[in-house]
Amino acid sequence: MSDLNPVFVSILFLFVGYVFGSIPVGILVGKLKGLGDVRDYGSGSTGATNILRTLGLKWALLVGISDLLKGALPVLLAVQLSVPDLAVALAGSGAVIGHIWPLFTSFRGGKGVATAFGVFLALFPLVALLVLVCSFLILAAFRYVSLMSMLGTITGAGYVALVALSDRADLGSLVGDFYHDSYILLAGVLFTLIEYKHFPNLMRLISGTEPKVGQGGSLRPQN
């Protein structure tokens, strides 16, 4: 794709990532299991945590892996096609935006954590696995998925920014030479979106009302 305009390619991969991210796996699973719209239950999210609360571990794993792939696949496609770094970063950003505000389900989706981790895994597989292990240790110790998600996002986004700033793309990355601004943009987008979506969770953590793993899967009150 080297003969195409870099701006056009970047916009194209932003759209490709957004479409991937918009695939409503959580909602499809909820309907398949006769639950109806999973957004009517628990936290109102379409992600794996809410599926865990409402349908159990098996379906939560399916949704979590699917949401992860929604972030990883467009990034891997962009890397495989050797598009500009900005296009790779926008593919990942678009996937997370699509998961949070999906095109196909009235722009109401999940919180973007698994999809953002898929982006991180595609770019830094070894470091991503280390972050995953540390995140599950946090979950085991405190039993708050939201706390695990926020701390994991800070760690992952911080690592992406550090690599971009230090010009050390060999630190576990599948990408060659970083274009600094592109990957700092990616880290900033992922961090900002996920922390923003978790602000209510943060307030509940502070107040002591945040549900732990396995809690909070009842039907949401209707306005």
Write the layout of secondary structure elements.
Blueprint: H1 6-22, H2 25-32, H3 48-55, H4 57-80, H5 85-100, H6 113-123, H7 125-142, H8 145-166, H9 180-197, H10 199-207
Helix pairs in contact: 1-4, 1-5, 3-4, 4-5, 4-6, 5-6, 5-9, 6-7, 6-8, 7-8, 8-9
Question: How does this model look, in words?
Answer:
- The longest helix has 24 residues.
- The chain has 223 residues and is mostly helical.
- It is globular, with a radius of gyration of 17 Å.
- It has one domain.
Give a short overview.
This protein is mostly helical. 68% of the residues lie in helices and 0% in strands.
**N-to-C order of helices and strands:** HHHHHHHHHH
Number of strands: 0
Distance between the termini: 50 Å
What's the average pLDDT? 88
Give the count of helical stretches.
10
Classify the secondary structure makeup into a structural class.
mainly alpha
